[in-house]
Amino acid sequence: MMKILISLLFAVSAWSAVPEKSTPAVNSSETLKERLKKLSLNEDESKTHNLVFDLPVTYNQQVAKWVQYFQTKGSKWFREYLERSSKYLPFIQNELAKAHLPLDLAFMVMIESGFSTSATSTANAVGPWQFIEGTAARYGLRKHWWLDERRDFRKSTKAAIKYIKDLHSEFGSWYLVAASYNMGENGLRRQIQKHQTSDYWTLVRKKALPEETQNYVPKILAAMLITKSPNLYGFRYLERRDPLEYDYVSVPGGTDLESLADALGVTRKSLKELNSELLVNYIPRQVASHTIRVPSGAGKIISEFLAKKSN
Length: 311
Hints:
Layout: H1 2-15, H2 32-40, H3 61-71, H4 75-98, H5 107-113, H6 133-138, H7 153-171, H8 174-183, H9 185-195, H10 200-205, H11 211-228, E1 247-252, H12 257-264, H13 268-274, E2 289-294, H14 299-310
Antiparallel strand pairs: 1-2
Helix pairs in contact: 3-11, 4-7, 5-11, 7-8, 8-9, 8-11, 12-13
């Protein structure tokens, strides 16, 4: 715990480079823990901050650089990611907990995609966890002309957890897990063998990793520090979004999502977001049935809608 608090004290120093109008006065007689608590609280919003970490915390120049970037040039989009986090983090962390993995691995998704199901990289990695097609297929995610399960938050998270477990079984370090997830395990194996080290920061110093991978772990750590205590870093009055909640229903082939949204009285966009794995707005007729997500409690309305449609 002391190591964590010391790391956070460095974070306070980084934050002080970007002044806030209402920075609390520092009393030299206060303990570090008391100072951190005072800085992290804002009476105008709910106090949900958590200074407990279950990934190793390193605070060095690389991490400090990204903390400062997220506070300045990247603050607009990072604020958006912070606000999205209240919607998606509970689900991801619950799945990680069930798999007995560190909950802070969820911050990989913040850096990978900003929690966007439609995110696509220049390397054609897709979805919140940014799976490429080969890895997605290896971990059971289907892709057809009308369906891409890499965009499915639930299925891609479960697939990512299996992948992360395999990576940790091989590399034994959470930093190396993240590095291999970013650059591919084959490339990381070669660099570990070439440089005879399995220390992430040593590989960074030797420039053995691609630049993106050198920045990947520092970005995750910076995002983790800020998200756990956003007030401390100048992110105040965040819009808190409701966590993902939905019901599953099985619908027959030929079901049109736009018509279904109209029947439910919800926006077509919101129903599409719940079913982002669908690349079209309908279930193909040649598909016997498909399970979709709908707003909680909408089962009866859907049954009535489907009954009318079949008549």
